From TrEMBL:
Family as reported in the entry's similarity comment: Belongs to the OMP decarboxylase family. Type 2 subfamily.
Pathway note: Pyrimidine metabolism; UMP biosynthesis via de novo pathway; UMP from orotate: step 2/2
BP term (GO), one: 'de novo' UMP biosynthetic process
Known catalytic reactions: orotidine 5'-phosphate + H(+) = UMP + CO2
Presence of the UniProt keyword Lyase in the record: yes
Protein name from the UniProt record: Orotidine 5'-phosphate decarboxylase
Record-annotated active site: 101
Family matches, as Pfam families: OMPdecase (PF00215)
Orotidine 5'-phosphate decarboxylase domain location: 17-273
Entry annotated with the keyword Cytoplasm: no
Enzyme class of the recorded protein, top EC level: lyase
E.C. designation(s): 4.1.1.23
UniProt organism field: Sulfidibacter corallicola
């Protein structure tokens, strides 16, 4: 089924716009959880911890966003953990937005597309429904990711980090910034992919830490899904992400990683604290878009 249509359907089913980020910061995984494993069992700890996280949060989440760097840092053990986590997400029928920020020349981008989406008889190494991409190599690096309507991409438009303005806010002769120029390209790439939901498979990443940019970028890309990191641990609030939503109360997916995975209450109530963090984030976001039951 068409990626964006599936995602919008999931927003309705869960009454949620929350994406749970799967970023296993090794030093923040509670010592009480690690105790049951050998000290160097990176695969066991990471896959075990995230499996529990998925079990307690999936009813509140539209999708999960594994950040691949947190797995890659452990080499083969990390890759094994990622494969296990992805298998568990499939068992739970969860949508996977892989945060890999990939791109390259066309032929290499095509290999990345096969790695995450598969192709024909070739299964994906890391099966995902969507992937974050860096589009600064141009459209030939984007097209390989758009071969199947069942998969989507989120193009970096305005990232949440403190120095994102160094390049992304630079203005061209037209007066448009680099981020606005990228947003215009996203709109163009997205148009032929729009599904029955009214949303297409080429989305954008815009950080919650730059609310002053949000409304104008949303206007530039009315039919794109916007993936919004930076809510929670980076200081972005629900109020700051409001302008990412369309009037239908849909179209934006708000990610929280550390804010959900590592609540202070874990030592007292264990994974129940993680369930509560996801539930609270979902409600906080729903309240701000002023749409409760879709
Ligand atoms: O502009 C961007 C793009 C991606 N990210 C990623 O999102 C999460 C945020 O984690 P938190 O713990 O909720 O801060 C992380 O995986 C980043 O790599 C981003 O933050 N900003």
């Amino acid at each position: 089924m068409h990626f964006a249509d599936r995602l919008i359907q999931r927003c309705h089913e869960r009454n949620s716009r929350l994406v749970v980020g799967l970023d296993p910061h090794w030093d923040r995984i509670p010592a009480s959880f690690k105790r049951g494993f050998a000290p160097d069992d990176y695969c066991g700890v990471i896959s075990g911890f995230l499996t529990h996280v998925i079990d307690v949060t999936h009813e509140h989440a539209v999708a999960f966003k594994p950040q691949i760097a947190f797995f890659e840092q452990f080499g083969l053990a990390g890759m094994e953990a990622l494969v296990k986590v992805l298998a568990h997400l499939r068992v739970r029928h969860c949508l996977v937005l892989m945060d890999g920020k990939r791109n390259d020349i066309g032929s290499t981008a095509a290999a990345y597309a096969r790695a995450f989406f598969g192709q024909g008889d070739q299964p994906a190494g890391f099966p995902s429904d969507a992937l974050t991409v860096n589009a600064y190599l141009g459209s030939d690096g984007i097209k390989p990711f758009l071969q199947s309507p069942n998969h989507g991409i989120f193009v970096l438009v305005k990232t949440s980090n403190p120095s994102s303005g160094e390049f992304q806010d630079m203005k061209f002769g037209s007066g448009a910034s680099l981020a606005q120029t990228m947003a215009a390209a996203v709109r163009q790439w997205n148009e032929p992919t729009i599904g029955e939901s009214g949303y297409g498979n080429v989305g954008a990443v815009i950080g919650a830490t730059y609310p002053e940019h949000m409304a104008a970028l949303r206007r530039e890309m009315p039919c794109s899904l916007i993936l919004v990191p930076g809510y929670g641990a980076q200081g972005g609030s629900a109020q700051a992400v409001k302008a990412a939503f369309n009037e239908d109360g849909l179209g934006a997916l708000i990610n929280s990683s550390r804010g959900i995975l590592f609540p202070a209450e874990f030592e007292k109530t264990g994974f129940e604290a993680i369930r509560e963090a996801a539930c609270d984030a979902r409600e906080d976001i729903n309240r701000i878009v002023a749409l409760r039951d879709l």
